[in-house]
Write a structure and sequence with these properties.
The chain is of the alpha/beta class. It has a single domain, classed as Ribonuclease Z/Hydroxyacylglutathione hydrolase-like (Metallo-beta-lactamase, Chain A, 4-Layer Sandwich), CATH 3.60.15. Helix content is 24%, strand content 28%. Strands 1-2-3-4-5-6 form a six-stranded mixed β-sheet, with helices on one face. The N and C termini lie far apart (39 Å).
Length: 217
């Protein structure tokens, strides 16, 4: 059985996820921990549950989702996995992070690269990599088919979508990919976003004002 634990970190109120199963193996997705207190909160949970992390994954590489990458790589000896289209996005964080007050940001590079259709093992479970660019050029979603749960980063929120006015953003492409990829998932699939509460695909199809059936945009 797949288990998902969320943490809300940094001034952007970013959702960090630990995804694990009963074997004790797990992956860390989008560590946004920006100080030692947030790092300790995350580490305490991992230790208390006896989780052995095997992967460090980024849905995309905007600053609020990568603040804890270097810390996690060092503490747990993990490789960082991103989509190759995110390499320049990750590199740029070291330039603009201080502008947001993250003066202690430690940059790091990716070790492995994700492609659409890849499968990431989480103990006895498997996450499938879905490619959903638009908010960021290499944005991916991690979906667990048996439990119909996904970590969707900043693609789709409850009642909203990811912003597309940042470098590499593409509004029309994001709308297209949400419809072609995410909206083809089961209607009762639960999506855990990069900010805010979880939602379901069915709810967004019916109610999302940007991309749902009654979209006004």
């Amino acid at each position: 059985m797949l288990k998902i634990k969320s943490f809300t970190f940094n001034p952007f109120q970013e959702n960090t996820y630990v995804v694990y199963d009963e074997s004790g193996k797990g992956v860390l997705i989008d560590p946004g921990c920006s100080d030692q207190f947030e790092q300790q909160e995350l580490a305490d949970f991992i230790e208390s549950e006896g989780i052995k992390l095997t992967h460090l994954l980024n849905t995309h590489c905007h600053v609020d989702h990568v603040l804890g990458n270097a810390w996690a790589k060092n503490k747990y000896g993990l490789d960082l996995w991103i989509h190759p289209n995110e390499k320049s996005v990750l590199k740029s964080v070291e330039v603009y992070a201080p502008n947001y007050g993250f003066v202690g940001y430690r940059s790091t590079e990716a070790d492995q690269f994700l492609q659409e259709g890849d499968k990431i093992k989480v103990g006895k479970e498997t996450l499938k990599v879905l490619f959903v660019p638009g908010h960021a050029p290499g944005h991916v979603v991690f979906f667990h088919e048996p439990s119909k749960q996904g970590i969707c980063g900043d693609t789709l929120f409850r009642g909203s979508i990811g912003r597309t006015d940042l470098p590499g953003g593409n509004h029309n492409l994001l709308l297209q990919k949400i419809k072609e990829v995410l909206f083809k998932l089961p209607h009762d699939a639960v999506m855990y976003p990069g900010h805010g509460p979880e939602t379901t695909i069915g709810y967004e199809i019916m109610n999302n004002p940007f991309v749902g059936l009654n979209a006004r945009y």
